[in-house]
């Protein structure tokens, strides 16, 4: 099914003709296309003379000799243009209090925080870890780092002490910004005490200071000589801070994400190229105008919160909602109630949220979107995982009132911004398909040798040419960067890690899911190996573990773990108790988002004679399917019956 949509009035991109013209422009002179946009969308202290340097491919450089400052582009230039009184952020707390912040105010706050960081000795190139709740201060902390040329690494507030410690160590961070607690769903959740645990035993020698934002006033333990209240360090700081002009390639941030092997990798992003695509996609995909109120429901701990909360909308001088809480508090009508209250015009969320709100609206009629005035909406967005056609249809009809185009945006932490997406009012939509590449992005589908496959045939999703906001390297591991994203057999194409297929008639892309051992649970990336390592780290109980994903109505995929214990296989109540203990263990090792939904115990795991765990069999078992695959190479076929059942 294809849904044609009438063009939006005065949209940035008018119709498929203009879309084709932009693609054509990029085709004709690729670097010149990006150079034009980089000049239009960004303010440069020193203009660049060359758009692309590919002499050290795949370590591409963009706008290399240009100088700019990201925070200047997001804040100062709007104030200088007389737009300082415009609302930048409409912050709403968990309990519904609203704090609007103008561009002038956000600039002053950012500058004071930047000066506070400087007063603690933080300088250009230093890494700062941000472990904060959704807050004005969280956004300002990112901007403050950008302002002084410090490279931030935001760690999602749901990650455990162990995960936080790994990231601080890997990044070699000198300073950490956190809060006493965070408020979510009416509950105060600790942040500072998790930081204390992460930093115990002097395990992070590079880290000198911990700045603590007072959010709730809850009691916190204090380490003298290390912990400082953010407001005290900021008190008396000037609200003017000259931006540090950095080279376009200067690392703006590291963001850790899961891969198929080993520990999460620190995806390194640039300043100039990254900001260009964040701004450009906010402008074209969301058609952001001065009259819009934009709301991206992501957390700043994920890439979506970087590009579409902290940077893109601000680079354009837009007005956006920033939300501290959760979609289900005080009830599952919270999103709709906030759209009504703030007259949100462009709304961007994840399929998993939509699916859980569909369920809620089906059980509690009062939280159905029809009870709210959502007439301010004009564009809806989706991100993080494939949106199934049923959820798409519900979103389109019940939230968008059948009036609003849905932009199903495919992209990744590594890509910095949208890669394949409809443009609103331009691209005819097809539920479940992310449609066509963003102008200038050379997405394609190839076979294992990098040869194009015909439309209608599935294959590997690649990007044939570099683009400005692409990952620059994996922090501290350039070899892993090359191996993961530019494997030799793929002819120099970027390997996304997803499978995809193009429609034979329309050429539209549909993402068919990861081709590696990465799961997508509620739009969050989790490596199966990472969860397995966490399980076997429980050395007292666990002998062996294998983790697979299985389809789930709400979370997209659910984590299912097969575990062999060091003691006899438990059953009944004992199995339940141990499964619970292991789930909590994983939450402590990685974070609650990594908790397996189901744990099954076996005397053994299905293995080949050479000792390889046969995960594809486990995937069938997890789904509850009969095993139809060839099991002749299996060492111990009898184990399948045992693992087919829940404990
Ligand atoms: C932005 C973000 C990236 C992975 C990606 C893919 C999946 C994201 C999608 C989508 C289908 C979409 N993904 N958007 N799949 N349709 N519109 O989510 O980044 O957390 O790095 O995840 O998410 O599998 O490879 P990240």
UniProtKB/TrEMBL annotation:
One of its GO terms (cellular component) is cytosol. Residues 530-612 form the AMP-binding enzyme C-terminal domain. Belongs to the ATP-dependent AMP-binding enzyme family. This is Acetyl-coenzyme A synthetase. It is an enzyme of class 6 (ligase). InterPro entries: Ac_CoA_lig, ACAS_N, AMP-bd_C, AMP-bd_C_sf, AMP-binding_CS, AMP-dep_synth/lig_dom, ANL_N_sf. The lineage of its organism: Bacteria, Pseudomonadati, Pseudomonadota, Betaproteobacteria, Burkholderiales. PANTHER family: ACETYL-COENZYME A SYNTHETASE, ACETYL-COENZYME A SYNTHETASE 1.
């Amino acid at each position: 099914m294809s849904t044609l949509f009438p063009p939006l009035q005065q949209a940035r991109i008018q119709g498929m003709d203009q879309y084709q013209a932009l693609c054509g422009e990029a085709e004709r002179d690729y670097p010149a296309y990006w150079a034009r946009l980089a000049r239009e969308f960004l303010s440069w202290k020193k203009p660049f003379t060359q758009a692309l340097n590919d002499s050290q491919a795949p370590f591409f450089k963009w706008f290399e000799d240009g100088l700019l400052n990201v925070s200047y582009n997001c804040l100062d230039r709007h104030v200088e243009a007389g737009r300082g009184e415009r609302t930048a952020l409409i912050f709403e707390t968990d309990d519904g209090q609203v704090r609007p912040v103008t561009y002038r105010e956000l600039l002053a706050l950012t500058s004071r925080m930047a000066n506070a960081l400087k007063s603690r000795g933080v300088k250009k190139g230093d890494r700062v870890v941000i472990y904060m709740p959704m807050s004005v201060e969280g956004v300002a902390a990112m901007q403050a780092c950008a302002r002084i040329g410090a490279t931030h690494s935001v760690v999602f507030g749901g990650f455990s002490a162990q995960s936080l410690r790994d990231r601080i160590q890997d990044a070699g961070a000198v300073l950490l910004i956190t809060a006493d607690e965070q408020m979510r769903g009416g509950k105060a959740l600790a942040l500072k005490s998790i930081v204390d645990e992460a930093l115990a035993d002097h395990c992070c020698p590079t880290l000198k200071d911990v700045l603590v934002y007072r959010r709730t006033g809850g009691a916190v333990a204090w380490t003298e000589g290390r912990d400082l209240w953010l407001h005290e360090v900021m008190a008396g700081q000037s609200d003017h801070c000259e931006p540090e002009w950095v080279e376009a390639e200067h690392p703006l941030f590291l963001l850790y994400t899961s891969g198929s092997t080993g520990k999460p990798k620190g995806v390194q992003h640039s300043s100039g190229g990254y900001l260009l695509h964040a701004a450009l996609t906010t402008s074209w995909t969301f058609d952001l105008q001065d009259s819009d109120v934009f709301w991206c429901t992501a957390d700043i701990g994920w890439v979506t919160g970087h590009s579409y909360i902290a940077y893109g909308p601000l680079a354009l001088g837009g007005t956006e909602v920033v939300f501290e809480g959760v979609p289900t508090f005080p009830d599952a009508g919270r999103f709709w109630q906030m759209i009504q209250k703030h007259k949100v015009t462009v709304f961007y969320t994840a399929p998993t949220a939509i699916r859980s709100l569909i369920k809620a609206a089906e059980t509690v009629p009062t939280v159905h979107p029809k009870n709210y005035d959502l007439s301010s909406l004009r564009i809806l967005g989706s991100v993080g995982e494939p949106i199934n056609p049923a959820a798409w249809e519900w979103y389109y009809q019940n939230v968008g009132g059948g009036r609003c185009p849905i932009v199903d945006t495919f992209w990744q932490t590594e890509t910095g911004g949208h890669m394949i997406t409809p443009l609103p009012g331009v691209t005819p939509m097809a539920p479940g398909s992310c449609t066509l590449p963003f102008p200038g992005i050379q997405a394609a589908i190839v076979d294992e040798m990098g040869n194009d496959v015909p439309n209608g045939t599935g294959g590997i999703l690649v990007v044939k040419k570099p683009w400005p906001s692409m990952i620059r390297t994996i922090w501290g591991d350039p070899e892993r960067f090359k191996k993961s994203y530019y494997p030799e057999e793929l002819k120099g194409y970027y390997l996304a890690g997803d499978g995809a297929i193009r429609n034979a008639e329309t050429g539209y892309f549909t993402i068919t899911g990861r081709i590696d051992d990465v799961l997508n649970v509620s739009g969050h990336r989790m490596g199966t190996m990472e969860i397995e390592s966490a399980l076997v780290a429980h050395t007292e109980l666990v002998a062996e573990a294998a983790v697979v994903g299985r389809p789930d109505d709400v979370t997209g995929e659910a984590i299912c773990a097969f575990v062999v214990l060091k003691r006899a296989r438990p059953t009944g109540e004992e199995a339940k108790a141990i499964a619970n203990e292991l789930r909590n263990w994983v939450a402590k090792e990685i974070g609650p988002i990594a908790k397996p939904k189901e744990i099954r115990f076996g005397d053994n795991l299905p293995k080949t004679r050479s000792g390889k765990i046969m995960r594809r069999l486990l995937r069938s078992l997890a789904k509850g399917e009969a095993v139809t695959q060839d099991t002749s190479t299996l060492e111990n076929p009898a184990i399948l019956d045992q693992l087919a059942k829940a404990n």
